[in-house]
Structures are given as C-alpha cells and as structure tokens.
Amino acid sequence: MRLDKYLCACTGCTRSQSKLYLKKGLVKVNGEPEKRPEIKVDPGKDQVSLEGRVLSYREHEYLMFHKPAGCVTAVSDREHKTVMDYIQRKDKRGIFPVGRLDLDTEGLLFLTDDGELAHRLLAPGRHVEKTYFAMLAHPASQEDVDAFRTGIEIGEKRPTLPAGLSLLETPGHVLVTVVEGKFHQIKRMFQARGNQVVYLKRTAMAGISLDPDLDRGQWRELTEEEVERLRSLC
Ligand code: URA
Q1: Which of 65, 85, 151, 188 supports an S-S bond with 219, CB 3.0-4.6 Å?
Q2: In the annotation, is 102 catalytic?
Q3: What is the 3-state secondary structure (H, E, C) of 28-76?
Q4: Model-level pTM?
Q5: Tens digits of per-residue pLDDT, 137-179?
Q6: Which secondary structure element, helix H or strand E, spans residue 209, and what is its range?
Q7: Mapping DSSP to helix (H, G, I), strand (E, B) and coil, where does residue 202 land?
C-alpha cells in the first residue's frame, strides 16, 4: 500500500494532510525517516511511525458511539438528525450503525464498515447480550423478574427468550439483559407486563460497556482488545 494512503488509513487524516506530514519529515518507516508518499509499505511487516508514535493499521473502522435521544439510527433521514451526523471525520464512507436504537433511546451503539462482523453480531442465532437501563412508569416486581426469565408474549411467533431483569434501589429503575433484538423489544416486554418504559439507555453490548468518558453525541474508536472481543464472540 502507498505510504500516504497507509497514513490516512491509520490516522483518519486526508491524503493532503498525510503528504504534509511526510514533507515535514514527521514519518519514519522501520526507524528511517521517509518523505516519499508513493513508496509501498506492507501493513503486516513494516513499522510506520508518525511523530514518534507507532501506527497500527486496521482494515476496518470500529467506533463506539454514545447515541443521544432525538437522532435516528440510520445513515440518512429526511426528517431527523442521524447518528452519522455526529461522526465528524473526514472519511466516514462505508460506516454504518450495527443494529438500531429507537429515536428516543440513548446509549451504546457500535458503528463499523465491517459488514461481516456486523452481520454476525446481529444474527439471531448468536444470542449476543445487550443490557439496558430503564426507568419505568411503575415499579417492577419479583413477578416481572420471573416472567422475564421465563419469556414474554409480545405478539411475535414465539415468546421472548429468557431475559435478565434486575430491580435497582430506586423504585422503577431496572437493568434488563436480552439476547435478541426485536423491534421495540424492551418497551413491548414491559407493556406486556402492564408497565411502560419512560427512559431507555443501552449500557452494554457483547460484554463491552459504554465508555463513561463519552458524553451524549461523542464517539471514540474501539480499542484493539474490544475489537478482539467482538471477533471472538462471533
Ligand atoms: N428495545 C426498545 O424498546 N428500544 C430500543 O431502542 C432498544 C431495545
């Protein structure tokens, strides 16, 4: 791969920025200063550093996003802001949200351009865990906990798969863990129990928790360990 392209792939910079880095002598290949944008590097073998920092090459992008309420989980929309409107980076072509959260749901959403991994994470048979914090109109009960564990009729062909419901100290505050992703699933599960979700936030997916340092609307790249975790699950 050309060195200037490699710099873009690793840092998210533009091609002209990468040329500027090279011109300024900020780039080393295998410890040697390099200024030629056109030379070829092997991502698997060559070590490239920018201002002394060794770069790591990723074929795909993996982002963690703290979705705020009021934006749709889509790449484009005529009416509402989309999650993509929050991803301020030069090259976001090909990135899309992994699954969806409702317009009014907040919390953890992965974005990637790795269609294969996304597909596997969402495949019904994989039973990838998703955890939500919910505030309810009425306190939940031990009977609700039992019903969630058994499975609930929400108007689908089959009852929901066993789900975890934990009652938090504040009445009406709960944590729910499900292993499927049916449309409006959490809201429909509580509705079936005669209750109503008034606030919903996804706090974890596939064993990865929403980074507490991310405010609503902020994102960061997944760490190598997090990407590995997603890969190992699928
Ligand atoms: N369940 C819901 O009801 N809404 C979401 O956004 C996610 C899960």
Answers
A1: 65
A2: yes
A3: EECCEECCCCCCECCCCCCCEEECCEECCCCCCCEEEEEECCCEECCCC
A4: 0.83
A5: 999 999 999 999 999 999 999 999 999 999 999 999 999 999 9
A6: strand 208-209
A7: strand
